[in-house]
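User: Hi! I'm working on a homework problem where we have to compare a predicted structure to a textbook description. Could you give me the structure for the chain below?
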Amino acid sequence: MASASLTDAQRETLELFDGFGEPLTTSDVAERLDLGRRSAYGRLERLVDCGVLETKKVGANARVWWRRPDAPSPDREADGEVNPRPGDEDTLFGLLVDAVEEYAIFLLDEDGNVRTWNPGARKIKGYEADEIVGEHFSTFYTDDDQAADVPEQNLAEAVEHGNTEDEGWRVRKDGSRFWANVTITTVRDETGDIQGFAKVTRDMTERREREQQLRRERDLVDQIFETSPVGLGVLTRDGLERTNPRAAEIYGSPTGDIDEYTVGEPAVYGPDQTPVPPAERPNARVFETGEPVHGWECQLHSIDGQHRWLSVSAAPLTYDTGDVERVVVATKDITHLKEQSRRLERQRDDLEAELDEVLERVDDAFCALDEEFRFTYANQRAAELLQVHTGELLGECIWDLYPDATETPVWNGLREAMETQATTEFEVYGEELEAWLQASVYPSETGLSVYFRDITDRKLRVRELERYETIFETVDDGIYVVDTDGYLTMANEGYAELTGYPHEQLVGMHVSELVDEETVEKARTHEQELVANERETARFEADVLTADGGTVRAEGAFSIIESPNEGYERIGVVRDISERVARERKLERQRERLAALDDLNRVVRALSEAAIDQSTRVEIEQTVCEGLAATDSIQFAWVGEVDGETMTVCSRAEAGVGGFLDEGTVAFDLDESGRSDLIGRAVKTREMQVVEDALNHDEDEHLREQAIEWGFRSTATIPITHEGAFYGVLNVYTDRPDAFVGAEGDAIGHLSEIVGHAISAIEQKRALRSDEVVELVFHISDFFGAFDFPSADGRVTFDRAIPVGDGVYLEYGTATPEMSEVLEALVEDLPHWESIQFLDGDSGEDASRFELRLVEPPLLSSLTAIGGYVDRAAIEEGCFQIRLHVSPSADIRQVIEVVEEAYPMADMISRRQVTKTSPMSDGRSRLLVEDLTDRQRTVLETAFFSGYFESPRPIPGKHLADTLGIAGPTFHQHLRKAQKKVLAHVLDS
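Assistant: Happy to help. Predicted structure tokens:
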């Protein structure tokens, strides 16, 4: 038997038994080689067959393997071979199969199940031996082939013919597919019985893809070859191998086929019309030199008798040795281009001749320079400007003739045009010529064409125009020019800013778009007067219409200038005088307002004194209305009484109203719906309400209609109040806008306060003189519970509340001992209870006298304002009861609302009209009260109710003086005078 070498896989396995150490199990070998157990077992069996390993079965299913001490070296012997056991051909075949990794070689049993597995099969199909041995070989086929019984058909063919060969898709372990070449051979024994099948598989995927790629490339080359607009041909040294249809057209073959013609048969001529032999043509040169030829031009006398100009390119196709195998020739018909070139040459010659004639007639200086900046042409005008004879310029470099011209605009301009091949223009001042020149440089492939023009006059005009434009644009006022048809031909930025139009839009606009028709007519009249020399300039004021739809008050002046075309134009200057006009109007309004304010202040002072002197409310109100209407600043005025139930105002006094109040009453609205109702807002807020411009008051259409009918612009409604009491509204009207604000409004408001104070005083005196009063009794059953205080037994009486000024009252009363702490706690809790002091002395009935300081108590302030007073108030056993006396003419509903607002938990238990029965009800007592001043009465009441006249005195006079905010001597002075008046009335009675 021939010897066989160990495979790499077998050597790898044998290296695990380095030396002659302890035996290894199959599992040990499989784990160390990272193989399946069956694959490792196969390798170990073959090494035993080669005589390098020994094996022994241990246990029921295990086996160990070790290296024989006398085993030959795994390396090759001197002759490079390993000698298997003589006569063991199966071992030799096994070694051969294991050495092949490019092919999958394995045996199938007669049913098609896998019996053996080699490394090539593992590499190609991805299965380990222990994973696939025993499985049917149809596992390697696709689902479609399995469904078509392809595996069974292949076995059947192998049985019938001895073997079969097939190509198709096969499936790996991971599910990927590969293109396989498969050979299946039937294996029979000596008797001819089928023992199984030998199957050889080769992965042909890459070769198949290469073949497909080559096929696509060949098809693409064929398509390009056949459709190319250029004639293509492939030549060998023996002649023409292949051409495309375009080549047949170029060579003039009537059949479209030139394969029968030999190389060099058509006649070919060079550009000089000399014949070109075949050996000098591009294909022969490429065969000879191996170098490509590009753009070789010739004239072909084609088969059809046509003469064609061709551009020929040839490139070699070489062997691996570098020798030229074939030549590819590309031929392009350039007959049309040649004819066009000749035509252009003739045109160029004609143009050059014509240009020479034109240049001689050109007034501008002209010269031509080549690529080296040498003069090739110059006309007479150019020679004159350059101050040299024409003959001395030709052929000379401009930089040699004029070395000082380097690094000048001339140098930069010519260099830029030459380098960029773009038209260039520049201006230069010639010192020697004392002139400005403008140069236009036109580049071409052969050099530069330069035109010079003397622009000195234009330059001077431009500079002069720039100076005018600088002035034109730097002036803040608007400047414009209008033609005879009334269209703007010029306008500066000042005019654009004034009108709000862009400068570009202004030019071309008609003046009627910027001013009204009256202004246009006025300007036209002034223009005619200027033309007739009846005036030198025209000046007037007008409103300029702006782009945003507004107007700007402006002052304008214009005059007449000659037009660049014919006739004349109107140039004008416009200045925005809006601020000046606004200042003038503001000053005028201020003068009017100051005059009105001075007049109003004078009237207010007079009316204040007059109102105080009146004896009745009606006289006060009428005096105020007549005094206001008699001024120059107020048109008319009226005082209205508010009826809260009918929501109307009835006029009580008026002056200058005419028929404004013919309806007798005016309705008002307290709804907060947003409607502008002066009277309603004044009643609700108790604040003065003003409309500064009734003509433009969009919120109240009725008010605007009244303003138009009665001629007033501003109106104000002022509530007449005093310390919370509301007596009505004073309404004033004037023909001045923006009136009754600022100092003027303050004066009117001050007058209203004085009127309210005067009415309050009269109401109080009237209440004191009157024997009839309305008695209101209110009861709170759990007074302390309303303030989250624990109920307390005891009694508190409130004897008298004395106003001492600035909304401050001194409340004097008595409290039983258990109520003292309760009152102190109420001071901390009620905001208008400021402080409490218990006075020394015995008030009787085990009660202590106290002095409670109140600040703006809501109930007392409102009562005092309408002439009412608290007749009795007391807290007893946790219940609070208060009895009020008010004048029958007072707004009783308003009093009830004030009480309910101050004490929401109060219930009115009685309302009746009674006759006062106190000693003060007789006439002499009323005269006494009226004879006392307010301060004397306050001092007397404070001393009396504080216990000052008791003995011993519970409180010193200094304390009372401090409480009233006056000096001690002043307190005693007022007290003595009050006592004197009281004693005088008592003694007289």
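For your comparison, note the following. The first strand starts at residue 24 and ends at 25. The CA atoms of residues 688 and 718 lie 4 Å apart. Good luck with the assignment!
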